[in-house]
Amino acid sequence: MPAEAAPAAPGPENLFRHPWRFVTEAPAMAALPPAGPPELAFAGRSNVGKSSLINALVGQSNLARTSNTPGRTQALVFFVPDPPNADPDALPPVALVDMPGYGFAKAPKKAVESWNALIHDYLRGRVPLKRVFVLVDSRHGLKASDTTVMNELDRAAVSYQVVLTKTDKIKASALEAVRAATAEAIRKRPAAHPEIIATSSEKGAGLDALRAEIAAFAG
What we know:
This protein is an alpha/beta fold and 219 residues long. Strands 1-3-4-2-5-6-7 form a 7-stranded mixed sheet, with helices on both faces. Strand 6 (160-165), helix 5 (172-186) and strand 7 form a beta-alpha-beta unit. It is globular. The protein contains 6 helices and 7 strands, in the order H-E-E-H-E-E-H-E-H-E-H-E-H. It has one domain: 3-Layer(aba) Sandwich (Rossmann fold). Necessary for normal cell division and for the maintenance of normal septation. Residues 36-219 form the EngB-type G domain.
C-alpha cells in the first residue's frame, strides 16, 4: 500500500485569509516563547516600516503597533494566524516576529543598547528562526547597520531576504536603481536570498509576493 502523501503547506490564500493574533513580546532572550513553529522575523533600521508592513500583510491595521517615532518597538513581538475553530493545542503553521529597529532611535542610550543586543542575540541563536526579512527604505538603500546585520546572518547561516519598503514614495527609475544596487551588494553573500521584493504598505505593492514567501515556510 503506497505511503500517504504529506498534507500540502497552506498557501498564502489560506494563511492570510483569517485573522492573526498577538502571542507575546519578549524584551530579553529569557522571555522568548518555547520553540514552536517556523519563525520569520522582520528586521530593519528604526522607522523603516516593519510594523506597518506586518499590518498590511495580514490586513489588520492595529495588529502591530506603529509610530512615526523611531524606536517604538522595543521587544521581539510574536504573531500567529488565528483561524476560527482552530484546535487551541495545535501548533500554528508559522509565526511572524516584529523586531526592534536598529540604528537611530528616540530612546535612552541604554535602552537602545539593550534592544540592539537582543536583536543580534536572537538573529544568531534562535533555532526556529527560518528566515529574516531585512527591510530597507527604498529612498535610502542599504546602510552600514544593514550590512552589519547581514554579516551576522551570513556567519550564522540564517537565510535572509531584502525587502524594499515605502516604494510609493520614490519614482520608478529611482526604485530600479536602488534594486540594482542592492542586488549587486548581496550577490555574493552566502545566506542572502537573491530575489528582492519591493513593497508599499500603503499601496499594496509586493505584498502578494511576500505572502507567498511566508507561506512557503508554513508547516
